[in-house]
Every structure is written in structure tokens, then in C-alpha cells.
Amino acid sequence: MTGDTPGAEAILELDDVTVTFTAGPPLRRIRLDAMRHVSLSVAKGETLGLVGESGSGKTTTSRVALGLHRPTSGAVRFDGRPFPRRRRELAGRMQAVLQHPHWSLNPRMRVGQSVAEPLAVLGRPVGDLVTEMLGHVGLEESFAARYPHELSGGQRQRVSIARALVTRPDFIVFDEAVSALDVSVQVQILNLVKDLQAEYGFSALFISHDLGAVRYVADRIAVMRSGEVVETADTATFYTAPAHEYSQRLLEAL
Amino acid sequence: MKRLDRLSLGGLACLLVLVVFALGSLAGAGGDPDAIVGPRLRPPGPGWWLGTDNLGRSMLPRVMEGVGTTLLLSSIAVLVTAAVSATFGIIAGYRGGYLNELVMRLVEVLYSFPAIVLAILVAAVLGPGQVAALASIVLATIPLMTRLVRAAAVAVSQRDYVTSAVISGARLPRVLGRHVLPNVAGTIAVQGTYALSVGIAVEGGLSFLGFGVQPPQASLGVLIQRGGTYMIAAPWLILGPGVVLVVAILAINVVGDGLRDQLEPRETRSLT
Description:
Structural class of chain B: mainly alpha
Distance between the termini of chain B: 13 Å
Order of helices and strands of chain B: HHHHHHHHH
Radius of gyration of chain A: 18 Å
Strand content of chain B: under 5%
Shape of chain A: globular
Number of helices of chain A: 8
Largest sheet of chain A: 6 strands, mixed
Order of helices and strands of chain A: EEEHEEEHHHEHEHEEHH
Oligomer: heterodimer
Number of domains of chain A: 1
Number of strands of chain B: 0
Largest sheet of chain B: none
CATH superfamily of chain A: P-loop containing nucleotide triphosphate hydrolases
Helix content of chain B: over 70%
CATH class of chain B: Mainly Alpha
Low-confidence stretches of chain A: 1-8
Number of domains of chain B: 1
Shape of chain B: elongated
Structural class of chain A: alpha/beta
CATH superfamily of chain B: MetI-like
Low-confidence stretches of chain B: 267-272
Radius of gyration of chain B: 22 Å
CATH architecture of chain B: Orthogonal Bundle
Mean pLDDT of chain B: 86
């Protein structure tokens, strides 16, 4: 573990987290460590990029960070406090933009309803926030009345971002949020994320197998390989002088 | 939204005619189904357009009443099935684990009995009559619908909008009611039409065996059973209700196929 800086100002900390999946009958049980002694921290206002090949444990890491999966061992702290037993206590403080633009929005709900949902869940007034958020992500007010199948992939991902931002969360996970989009649309969305981050000051965990995209938005990079974090470094350092042999191989392949 | 295709529209038209038929019987059109209007076992003719039965009652109002009884009974049963299957199928599909296993094993036990055997069992316990027919249809249609709703719910539960709702802190009723149910509604509607045709067949079979609707009230099954006795001497007694039964089941299945083509969510298809 190199270059990790767990400070008091971290919004999210994973401390020696291991997640083991088991399957099969008791005596011939198959065990798989999706995460092995992973320690990561995301400082306030920072974007941590998490890269790695398929099956390296990126998605499990995001599920643990979002409280959707309890670690087998290790601790998760949000804003300096251990994760609450009921993740609803953190509702509205963390959000996610997930990978599949096609299924990120409920096809039976209008865009406006989707964007307003996190507020409705918390019982907060909606007011003009939907229009305002759509404006922030570059969509006209009229989109609120549309259904997802009328939107392009990029537009849907903009709506997902609006939905994630509407509760002004402290922390957002982007799990392969741009991977399914065209390259030109990817750049637009990445720029949007950067602009919004400058404006709202949220911290982010940006997960992707695309080193180029991560370089664009991340302040620091963590590299995962078969469940372990092999290197953590500042983005500039990482792309110029990767320390770990696996990181070097990844960068050569770029 | 695309319109139903021509075949389904035809099926829908047939169904509408049958419903109008049934409603007409309630309004007294066609005459009193229990009134004796002429000689016994007469072939179709003026005064008795579908012939007369062994007591000299005109078959036309009896078939009209029978269609109404059968359709009403099956429809109520299918609504019950839809409610039960949707509830258990969605919860089992979303939650998984032991609850899922329990629901699925129970459903498989039900599934392993032929519908008519189940129906006879129910009639033996509850006593023959409309309630037994209703309960039989429900028991016969629950297994398939629950399994299919569950399968759809499993697929929907893994989609990102459900995860996003959970991350936002949505509670179970909201996740299931707002996100899962609307996206499996198409499956429920399509299976509902198939269940309706199964229901009509089960009612027919049960009443035919004498465990369902009891005479003098007419249902398609009752009429066919009575008609069977005089099949050689008066084939029109079985022909009228028989044809109506076949038309009803065919029409409902055709409408169901059309609904499936239209309602099954676009996003589950690989090609648009």
C-alpha cells in the first residue's frame, strides 16, 4: 500500500476490508475473496479513481462503499463514523451513478419523477429542484415529462447524474458510469462531472476499467487486481511513474 | 404505442360479443332461461334459435346465461390469482433466499397436480358449487403465474434503477410498488389472459363432472354436460355451448398473444 493518506478529513474509509463469497454445499463449498484486505480512503472533495480489469473486485468495492454489501471483515467509516447498521440513516448523503445507461432509469417513470425520487424518499419538498437539476446537467425543462426510452444513452446518464445530485450528497460513486457511451459523449459527461464537482464539492469514487477516463477526472488512482489494491498514487505520479509492475503493464496497454 | 394486430383485434371483438351476450341475458334479452317455451328436443327454428332442450327450454337464453356465469366466475378467479401471484412472485423474486425457496416449492407442489384433479379435490372439500369452481380455478392458475411473475421480478430487481432507489434509501414497499411491480405488470396482464382461458376450461370441466355450477343455473360446462346425454338425438344441445366455449378460449388466447407482443417491456428484448 503506497501513497494512501488516511486523514481526519476522509469522507469514506475502507479499513482492511475483506469480502468472501461462498457457494455450493457445505462440504464442497467454494470460497472466493472478492476483496482481500483492501484499505482505501476518499478525502472530502476528492475524486478517487479505481481501476482494474474485470473481476478484480471493483464492483464489490463500490457495493461495500455504498453499504449494499457488508464486509466479511474489516471496517467501513463514513464521515469519520462507523457505517450505521441501517443504511437508510445515510440516505441522501451518498448516491450512485451506475453503469448501464439503458437500465439506470425506470422505464415506467417520467424523467422528472426519477429525478425527484431521492427527495420523495426522504420526504423533502421537491419544488423547482427537478428543473434546476436538469438545467445543471444540460437538459431542458421539457425532459421532465419524457420517458427514458425517448432519450439517448448520454441523456439518460445526465438524468442519472441529476438524480444523484438532487439531494446534495457528500459522496457519489460512479460505477462504470461512462463505459457504455460513445467516446465523444464520454468526454461530455466527464466534463459535466468535473464542472458539477467544482460547483457542489462532492467527493467521488470513480470506478472504471478505462484508464483514460479515470485520468481525466481522478485526483488519485487506486489499482485493483484479483481483490487486492496493488497501488495507490496521485494521478500525475501514477501516469508518469507507476510503481507497481501490474500498473506499468496496464499503462503500456493503454 | 403500437396497436394490437388484426388477429388480436378479432379476438377482442369476439370477446366483446360474448360479454354483450352475457349482459343481454341479465337484461332479459332472449327470454327467461328457465321458461319452457315449446316441445322437447326441437332443432333450431323460429322461437328457439338454438333449439330446445330435454325440458323444452329454449337454448338461446340458456347459452347466454351460461356464458355470463362462466366468464364472471373465471374473471373473478383470475383477479384473485393475479393478486396472490403478484404479491408472492414479486416478494420471492426480489428477496430471494429462504422465502423464495418456500414459495417456489409450494407452487411446484400445486403445479404437479393436473388442474382437474385439483378441482375435484377442492370440490370434495368445499362441496360442489360456484365457490368450489372459483377456488379450483384459482388453485389451477396460481402456480404458472407465480413462477413467471417471480422470474420477471428477479430480472427487474437486478436493474440499476432498483439499486439506485435502494441507495437513495427507498423502503421495501416503495421499491416493490414503484419499481418492480410496474415493470412486471406486462407479464401479469399477459398471464392473466392465459389464466382466464384456463379458468374457463376448468369451470367447463368441473361443471361437466357435476362438481361446479349446479343446475338449474346455466354455465357452459353444465350445458355441455346436459347436452352430452342427448348427443345423438339432439346434437345442437352440445353444439351451441361447445362452439361458444371454443370461441371464448381461442379469442382470449389470441388477445393474450397480442398483449404479450405489445406489453412485454421493450427493454427486455435484445433487438428493438
